[in-house]
Structures are given as structure tokens and as C-alpha cells.
Design a protein that fits this description.
Shape: globular
Number of strands: 11
Strand order of the largest sheet: 4-3-2-1-5-6-7
Largest sheet: 7 strands, parallel
Distance between the termini: 61 Å
Number of domains: 3
Bound molecules: NADP nicotinamide-adenine-dinucleotide phosphate
Order of helices and strands: EHEHEHEHEHEHEHEHHHEEEHHHHH
Number of helices: 15
CATH architecture of the largest domain: 3-Layer(aba) Sandwich
Structural class: alpha/beta
Radius of gyration: 21 Å
Length: 412
């Protein structure tokens, strides 16, 4: 069979990106790679280029271009390849005529511009990078409606809902139920959360993922972000999107229909499944070489409990941001990313993460975002506000420099 889909992968060296390439490898008769976009992991990118032979590769910034050329030379890689850099480079790669499908799996908002431009160019998008919809959901979904680009979720919860929706009509849905593993601190008492370390927080009980999403899973901010993502993907208001803790992570999410009937999607927790589902949709195909079959002998119990928003306030912050609308989800996301990075660098305590986010949300002015440039400017300002908040919570961590107070950002 001829190659039917040529991919551009944003974040090819990350956890989702590497899994996407495993799917390409196992379905090589269906998929080819036109472009690989990474950040700074030049050695892995060079190995991926040697294996998948894209026409274009993109690195985080111009200073990484020469190291990539050197790494390819060391591998005696002689095929022609264009090496681009930065957000504009990713956008150029994602909109190349030969690209049929873009997998958005970059870090935070680093792939926002490329994802938006891809949708603008009418490319179908497999979306793992939930931040794209969290910060610019209105703009991206509006553009997709205009150009006819499909946005196919890769986040396992949203993929589950997408799959469940095949059994009913959107107007028949009463509510969406997003499941959550509960993360590594599901049973940790509130007091002990003060002293948890990044190393403990990075030990996710089920999924092996990148650093930010792993910490977001531990604070439950990941579910807050997913509520916003679900709102934009499936068009339901916040009150119709619920969260349920399900520690086994076998049910990836559910839909409750108007008559009370529930549809759930179950599978082993392996990201190759939702990635492949998005890539081959509307077909379902066997994952070559490796059967991802649920072993019922090992999965005898399915447990559920409501989330504890007292111990994990980030979930409610996500709801509040969606309710507030406008630029609030964008500011919340930026604050979370900065706070998580500070936590990982031992500059902030675990329970300070929601404090920083709340501070930034309180300070955020009401702004309607009418362009991607507006989104990126608010993102930049919210990051500066988050750094100020971190400095105010941890005076010793302050660099001594005061961030510039911009526009109508409020004091906290
Ligand atoms: N991991 C999962 O199972 C999972 C599940 C559902 C949804 N998601 C979502 O998918 C997205 C990716 O998650 P992940 O776990 O795969 O993250 P990750 O492992 O941290 O990978 C992030 C990717 O982004 C690249 N990157 C970082 N900074 C960059 C920059 N400045 N410019 C260009 N590229 C940059 C990284 O490149 P280098 O490594 O080369 O620096 C890497 O390829 C997130 O939005 C996450 O919420 C992930």
C-alpha cells in the first residue's frame, strides 16, 4: 500500500512524540514522516532523522542548528534536509504542502503557533498538546470550522470521549465524565503535601510522561486543563464536564447520555492507542507486532471516588478559569507552567503551585483575545506575573529584580 499520510510531528523527542514514531514504525505502509520538530535533544532528533528521513527538521532555536548538522554528519547522514528553528520554523514545517497530518505534542505553548497555522492551512491535527486549546480554544476551533480542519484528540481522556461519541449524537449527551488516576499523592494527607519533593511527584503510578504533565497530574491541574480542553473539543459547558478519580486508569473517560445510559472506553493505559486512533481515524487497525490487550485476570476491580478539591485546589482553579473565560485560561496555564518549573527546580513548594496560579489569576485583567499574537502577549505577561508571585512567596528565591508592572495587571 502506498504511503497515505505524511506527518509533521511537533515534539517528536518527547514522550508522546516518541510513541507517535513507534506507531509510524509499526504502520509504515500507512504513514511517512515529512517533518520532525524537537527542542534541544539533538542526539535523539538526529537518531529519529536517520530512522525516518524527514525532508525538514526543526530545533528550538538557531543555536541548535549547527549541533544538529554535526550530529547528522557524525552519523554519515547524507540525505537532503532543511533545518529550521523556533516557533516560526515549526509553523513553516507544519504547513508544508506535503504534510497531511500534524501531531501536536510539544511542550506547553511552544507549538501553539504551528498548531494554529496548521489548522489555518486546513491540515488535520492530532492534538496531545492540550495547552493549544486551553490558551486559544476559541481562536483555534473557530479557525478549524472555517477551514474544515479536523482536530482529533490524542489526550487519552478526550480520545475516549471521541470514541464514546460514536455511539450517540452530541445533543443526546448529558455529561462528560473525565477519569483521573489521582496521581502519586491520592492518599497523601493534606499536611504532608507541604513537604513532598519533585522526585516523589514525578513518580506517576500509571503513566510515564513529560515533567510538566506529570506534576500537573499530581496537583490535578491536568484535569483542570482537560476540562477546558473538553469544553472546546466537544462544545459542552463547564457544569456538564465532571471529574472522577479512577486509580486503575483502565476507563479513560465516559459519556452519560440523556437517558442515563453510560458509555465508557477501556483499554490498557498506553498512549500508542489514542495516538494511533487519531492517526488512522475513522479506521481502527491492529497495532502491528504488539497486542495491547487488556488482561482481565489482572484487572478485576474498577474503583471510583470523587476528587478532593480541598487537597487539590488546582482542579477548581481550572473550572474558575473556564467560567471566567477571555484570557483567564491562558493566564492560568502560563502561571501553572512557571510554578511547575519552579517546583521542579526546588524553588517552590508543592502547595505553593496553586497559590501562585491563584495570585496570577486574581491579577489578570479582563482581556478578549482576538489573535494568536494577543494570546502570546498575555502568556508572556502572565509568566512575568507568576515569577513575581514566586518571588513574593519565597523572598530568598527572588533575583532582586522587580518585574515590570504592565497595563492593568493588579497587585496581589
Ligand atoms: N506524555 C503523555 O502521555 C501525554 C498524554 C496526554 C497529553 N499529553 C500532552 O502532550 C504534550 C507533550 O507532553 P509530553 O509528555 O510528550 O512532553 P515532553 O516529554 O516534555 O516532550 C515535550 C516535547 O516538546 C519539545 N520542546 C520543549 N521545548 C521546546 C521548544 N522551546 N521548542 C520546540 N520544542 C520544544 C521537547 O523537545 P526536547 O526534548 O528535544 O527538548 C519534546 O519533544 C503536553 O501538552 C501534554 O500535556 C501528554
Amino acid at each position: 500500500m502506498a504511503v497515505v499520510k505524511r506527518l509533521c510531528i511537533l515534539g517528536s523527542t518527547g514522550s508522546v512524540g516518541r510513541n507517535a514514531l513507534r506507531v509510524v514504525e509499526s504502520l509504515s505502509e500507512r504513514f511517512g514522516v515529512a517533518a520532525l520538530c524537537a527542542g534541544k535533544n539533538i542526539a535523539l532528533l538526529a537518531a529519529q532523522i536517520a530512522a525516518f528521513k524527514p525532508r525538514v527538521a526543526v530545533v528550538a532555536s538557531p543555536e541548535h542548528v549547527e549541533p544538529l548538522k554535526a550530529a547528522l554528519k557524525a552519523r554519515r547522514y547524507r540525505r537532503p534536509i532543511s533545518i529550521l528553528a523556533g516557533a516560526e520554523g515549526q509553523a513553516e514545517a507544519a504547513t508544508m504542502p506535503e504534510v497531511d497530518f500534524v501531531i501536536a505534542a510539544g511542550y506547553g505553548t511552544t507549538g501553539l503557533l504551528a498548531a494554529y497555522r496548521a489548522v489555518e492551512a486546513g491540515k488535520n491535527l492530532g492534538l496531545a498538546n492540550k495547552e493549544v486549546l486551553v490558551v486559544a480554544g476559541e481562536l483555534v476551533t473557530q479557525k478549524a470550522r472555517e477551514t474544515g480542519a479536523a482536530i482529533l484528540p490524542i489526550d487519552s481522556e478526550h480520545s475516549a470521549i471521541h470514541q464514546c461519541l460514536r455511539s450517540g449524537r452530541p445533543q443526546e449527551v448529558r455529561r462528560l465524565i473525565l477519569t483521573a488516576s489521582g496521581g502519586p499523592f491520592l492518599r497523601t494527607p493534606q499536611k504532608s503535601l507541604n513537604s513532598v519533593t519533585p522526585e516523589q511527584a514525578l513518580r506517576h503510578p500509571i503513566w510515564k510522561m513529560g515533567g510538566r504533565i506529570t506534576i500537573d497530574s499530581a496537583t490535578l491541574m491536568n484535569k483542570g486543563l482537560e476540562i477546558i480542553e473538553a469544553h472546546w473539543l466537544f462544545g459542552l459547558p463547564e457544569r456538564q464536564i465532571e471529574v472522577l478519580i479512577h486509580p486503575e486508569s483502565l476507563i479513560h473517560s465516559m459519556i452519560e447520555f440523556q437517558d442515563g445510559s453510560l458509555m465508557a472506553q477501556l483499554s490498557v493505559p498506553d498512549m500508542r492507542l489514542p495516538i494511533q486512533y487519531a492517526m488512522t481515524y475513522p479506521d481502527r487497525v491492529k497495532l502491528n507486532g504488539d497486542a495491547l490487550t487488556l488482561d482481565w485476570a489482572r484487572a478485576r476491580r474498577l474503583n471510583f471516588e470523587p476528587p478532593d478539591s480541598r487537597r487539590f485546589p488546582c482542579l477548581e482553579l481550572g473550572r474558575a478559569a473556564l467560567e471566567a473565560g477571555q484570557g483567564m485560561p491562558c493566564a492560568m496555564n502560563a502561571a501553572d507552567e512557571v510554578a511547575v518549573e519552579a517546583f521542579l527546580a526546588h524553588r517552590l513548594g508543592f502547595r505553593d503551585i496553586p497559590r501562585v496560579i491563584e495570585n496570577v489569576m486574581r491579577a489578570t485583567p479582563a482581556v478578549h483575545l482576538i489573535s494568536i499574537e494577543d494570546v502570546m502577549e498575555l502568556d508572556r505577561q502572565a509568566r512575568a506575573a507568576a515569577e513575581r508571585s514566586i518571588a513574593s512567596l519565597r523572598p530568598s528565591a527572588s533575583s532582586g529584580k522587580k518585574g515590570r508592572r504592565t497595563g492593568s495587571w493588579r497587585e496581589y
